Amino acid sequence: MKRSLLIPLSVLVLAVSVPARGDTDAEVQARKDALDVAAAFSNDGFKIRDGHWCGIVKPHDHSLVAVNLYAGNQYWFSAGATEPAKKIAVSVYDETGKQMTTESYDNAEKAAAGFTPSSSGQYFVSVDLLEGEESSFCLVYSYK
Amino acid sequence: MSRVRRVVAVGFLSICCAGIGAEPARLPADQMAKAIRLDAISIPTPGELFTALEKSGKINWAGQYRGPMPVTYSNRAQIALNLGGLIADGFIAVEAKDGQQVKNIGSDIIKLAKALGVSEKLLGRGSSINEFAENNEWDTLQEELEATQNEVKASMQSHADQDLVILVTLGGWIRGTQVVTSAIVQNYNEQSAKVLRQPALVHFMQSKINEISPELRSEPLVKDVSGELGKIEKLVSSPPGKTPDIEEVRKVNEAVGKMMQEIENKEAPK
Fold it and tell me: Does the beta-carbon distance from B51 to A141 stay under 8 Å?
């Protein structure tokens, strides 16, 4: 099967085949949006990890997840949020809490951060609500 | 302009804007302590580890195979640990682009998973693995292995076997680390050794083991593996920026090798 066909197919499979127990409709939609963003990076050889984190973003609050990354790999953390979120951002911090320089993609309620760690270890990925009200979000990540 | 290029162009602008005048933001310690930690996103897959290792040069993946293992264990903790190890073997065979080995391992994964009574749906995964292996669809195979691992874990959770989930994850990490440290010792370079620094990851797995039922935790195999994990945490806890030297890598390899031997061979009492 051609790669161009495999990428949308695998995103579709990830989106529909393994909904985590307890995910709300809003979280399922947010996850679909996050996977849409991640699919763009798949075209560039990034593999989407078959795992996700869904939750609630609130104004003036970081929604944080700990990840363990390997030096040498490149990562994209992609998030989607649902109404009433208007604009979100994704950031990466190291284990001391220092914000890392990332490439970023922002498109209203979808956002992503690209990061290449120089040191292996624990990092924190933050999903922040920049505009809008408390809403559901979902984060996926991809690597190459 | 392609979608990725647009993304990167937007990103470049964001980096430039963020860099003007502002000190990078810092997270307070209490927020970091409260961060969510999830098996599905906080623990990397063996595939991620192997991808990082490959960046430093060509790896003889086929040289990392191990001999056939029994799939007739009766102890559930031992089955779970071996299942995780087998899934890591599947990733190794995918890296080696060895279709027959992938099929053999896929078949063993299904046998062990059935011994734990996980979902019949997994039989379908076995067929998919065979089909993708026959068609040399390596990227898809890697996704299928990851999905298989997640399905095994989801099935365990729905059968009130959630305590076994961390053992599957741990088995995969131990086998993955054994392979990676062996490859690094064979051809040491600093870039590849950098992947071994994972103090928080080992600490997280240890904390998950501490959460399992006292009965399971007191089983000799689980107790031994947990004890060894504490020692390994020290070995993989170098400061950021410090790369383990070859002797340190060898120590990690010996420690995980000892654990792997115990997981494979010891028929722990029920």
Answer: no
